[in-house]
Write a structure and sequence with these properties.
Layout: H1 4-31, H2 40-60, H3 66-81
Helix pairs in contact: 2-3
Length: 91
Amino acid sequence: MNGIPIILISIVVVLILMGVVVIFLIWKGRSEGISKIPNYRGLFIFGICILPMGVIFSSAVNPGFIGFTGLGVAYMAIGLANRDKWKKWKE
């Protein structure tokens, strides 16, 4: 028997468990009244880091890494769209 179905089943189970944990944490945070504002400047900087990594990996290793390029562009766009909400560096 091929091992691919076992791998796919384990990936799906892990993703479902991660989803349940995230939903629980969101529910717990909302019930306690905790709300966090995203760090949009951090998202922009993370996008700057991921974008070249995706370009290099997709050209050198495998075209499947083009997703990193898309994530980099998306994070940069989200960060720039909310530039007025950037947190200042704490000194």
